Amino acid sequence: MGCATVFCLSLTGCSWWMPFNSTPKPVEVTSLFAIDDYDQDVDHWINPLSTDYDKPVLPETTQRAQFDALFARYFGTAARDPSPWNPAFINAAVYRQGGADIAALQRRRLGRYDNRMQAPQHIGYGQNLRPHSAEWIDGIAANLNVAQFEQRPGYDAMRRAIATSNVLVRGLPTSDPSFYDSRIAGEGYPFDNLQISAIRPGTPVYIVGTSSDGAWQYVQTPDVQGWVSSTDIGLVDEAFVTRWRAAAKKSLGGIIGASVPVRDASGAFRFAAPAGTMLPIAGHDAQGYDVLTPANDADGHAQIHAARLNGEQTIVPMPWPATPRHIATLLRALIGRPYGWGNTGLYNDCSSELQSVFAPLGIWLPRHSANQMTAGSKADVSALTPTERVAWLSHHGQPLRSIIYIGGHVMFYLGNTTIDGKLVPVVYQDIWGMRPVANTRRAVIGGSVIMPITLEVPEDSTLRSLAATPIFQVMTIDTAPPPGLSPESGDDPAS
Q1: Is the pLDDT of residue 71 over 50?
Q2: Average model confidence (pLDDT) for the chain?
Q3: Above 50 in pLDDT, residue 10?
Q4: Angle at 337 between CA 488 and CA 461, to 5 degrees
Q5: Considering only CA atoms, which of 349, 384, 357 is closest in space to residue 473?
Q6: Is there a smaller number of Cβ atoms within 10 Å at the N or the C end of the chain?
Q7: Domain 30-58+339-476 is in which class?
Q8: What is the pLDDT of residues 317-334, one digit of tens each?
């Protein structure tokens, strides 16, 4: 899971039968990391005075190829284009076993959250810190109706839809969280195991199944499969798809603010668009851009509305040139925002943070941290010592193009600094916290930050260096993406 540095609530309290003079000993599994000791000024690390500040870090041909692949993933119609609106993709990839594999996935998920089948460390707890009951999972199972997934003949144009708001993607059709025991370091809030991801407004989806009560839809997105609230998506017909796809082909815009309010021409608030949201641009002038937005009508069908986005830090035509200036703009918008496991609270975790940074540049990254290593050329230096890894990254990493994967967590390489006369790599990351080798606690950071990768953590020598993890891989975006990468549909939340 992404940002594998997780945390657990500490529980304290007294039982009524405890002796009067007895004091319970708290379980200390979390503390706050001294992140204020680290310089969080983006301009200090990406220098605005550099002669290369407006020089793209990617060749134009490479960035265009990346953007073409992103567009195909969302809107493409060629046989290999993994778009939820592409009949060939739905039949070949989503229904590759006629729905039997989807049904099997639902059964695995139901079994995973059935406490009658779990070891003590995998018992699921609700927000009230009590284990989920058998009635809870049985009710979800009945509402999910696994049998429906084995009855799908294939692609159905009437099942195309679009996200009309920010949409949380769940592992099962319920908004109830499922935490492991919060007294175990690395578990508890915010690590709701049922929270898979989120999709942004304007994202095409395909409806694979519907809950018995109609409140939930099981959908294929350009990234993942999962359950979403029926009210957050709208059905689309051929006229909608044709107009939306043509407008996006003419000019697709990427949101570059952290959360940009979008109101339609009538003044009605539609949604707050997170960074990386993609909407067709219908026109622009010196004051801003006119964009198209989807909105549900009374019958749950999506209609196209116009909206006006004013100001410089809202939306840009894609692909936005991948210059240090533009990347710094995106980092300044996002840095310091809270960490959100699987997009809990519609905040980012490590991999979705990088998606938000790269999307306006026209570069699609997979949703899961491990899969992001497939987006370019990968070097696996896990066999090196931590000292050798730091030296390798300092000399071979490509600033603003390389992503480091350390097992469940990804970081964005910004460049180097000098500490005690030695080159030290500096990374941007959305991280929950640091952990000791013994994995007994968390020093919580809880957001997106800039940090050096040092061999020791000066604030706490018991914490494990990010260079000392079992896995250390470096992916560099340097070519067109591999063709036909499929969206993820595994059992685990994306992170």
Answers
A1: yes
A2: 91
A3: no
A4: 90
A5: 384
A6: N
A7: alpha beta
A8: 999 999 999 999 999 999
Q: Which amino acid is at 221?
A: T
* The CA-based dihedral angle spanning residues 41, 44, 45, 48, taken in that order and rounded to the nearest 10 degrees: 110
Q: Are 155 and 99 in contact (CB under 8 A)?
A: no
Answer whether residue 14 shows pLDDT above 50: no
Closest among 339, 329, 433 to 6, alpha carbons compared: 433
CATH among 2.30.30, 3.30.420, 1.10.530, 1.10.3470 for 242-317:
2.30.30
Q: What is the pLDDT of residues 223-276, one digit of tens each?
A: 999 999 999 999 999 999 999 999 999 999 999 999 999 999 999 999 999 999
* Dihedral sign computed on CA atoms, order 83, 86, 88, 94: positive
